[in-house]
Design goal:
α9 links the parallel β5 and β6. The protein is an alpha/beta fold and 226 residues long. α1 crosses α4 and α3 crosses α4. The chain has ten helices and six strands. The model has no long low-confidence stretch (mean pLDDT 94). The protein is globular, with a radius of gyration of 17 Å. Strands 3-2-1-4-5-6 form a six-stranded parallel β-sheet, with helices on both faces.
Length: 226
């Protein structure tokens, strides 16, 4: 690779893959396991991107920490069971494969920073044949989750890339806030779980409406064209 190192850091759920059906259904199973009825699907989608226990806590304000942990564990079990039954659907969003090709062709390193567990992240990347594409995989399994900048800091340390040469791509305000906290640029995507006005208000440097537009947006930001 020639030239300075540059890194495109992607969120997973809602950015790379469409996993909302599996997430909503698994959370509903977790709630039923604890006699909690049915969660609001829109509320569940709103917390995608947070680490699991904080996400459950946001859905069940006022409940005990023990219940939050127990529901999170039931969610993990339900999600894993869907995977084992072969009914887990997490398709790539349109244009994402082309964007990964274009960024690699431009000499960029690729990484992931996600609220998903490392087990879940590796599983979805393997299913789509993408594991070899990403040089750094960051989850909240071993540190603070979004919007804390820890995952970005770890990705930079692993790759040797500086903040000024790194762009975060994500669909939620948690992604954009994490990028701002880490002092890196960010691209918001419109097809995920938070609305475009929210992404703008959170400080996204630009917004794209199609997966195939991501590469150009990332490169433009790094080259000072946006």
């Amino acid at each position: 690779m020639t030239g300075p190192l540059r890194l495109a850091l992607f969120d997973c759920d809602g950015t790379l893959v469409d996993s909302q059906h599996a997430i909503v259904e698994s959370m509903a199973e977790a709630w039923r396991a604890h006699g909690l009825g049915e969660p609001d699907p829109n509320a569940v989608r709103r917390v995608v991107g947070l680490s699991l226990v904080p996400a459950v806590a946001a859905l069940l304000p006022g409940s005990s920490d023990d219940l939050h942990v127990a529901v999170a564990e039931s969610y993990r079990d339900a999600f894993a069971a869907r995977r084992q039954r072969g009914v887990l659907e997490e398709p790539l969003f349109p244009g994402i494969a082309e964007t990964l090709d274009a960024l690699e062709a431009a000499g960029m390193l690729l990484g992931v920073a996600t609220g998903k567990s490392m087990r879940g992240l590796r599983s979805v990347l393997e299913r789509h044949g993408l594991t070899h594409r990403f040089v750094t995989l960051q989850t909240a399994d071993t540190g603070p989750g979004k919007p804390h900048p820890d995952m970005v800091h770890r990705a930079l340390a692993e790759t040797g890339v500086g903040p000024a040469a790194t762009v975060m791509i994500g669909d939620t305000t948690y992604d954009i806030q994490m990028a701002r906290n880490a002092r890196i640029a960010s691209v918001g995507v419109s097809w995920g779980y938070h609305e475009v006005p929210e992404l703008r208000a959170a400080g996204a440097d630009c917004i794209v409406d199609d997966g195939a537009q991501v590469a150009a947006a990332v490169l433009d930001l790094l080259e000072g064209k946006r």
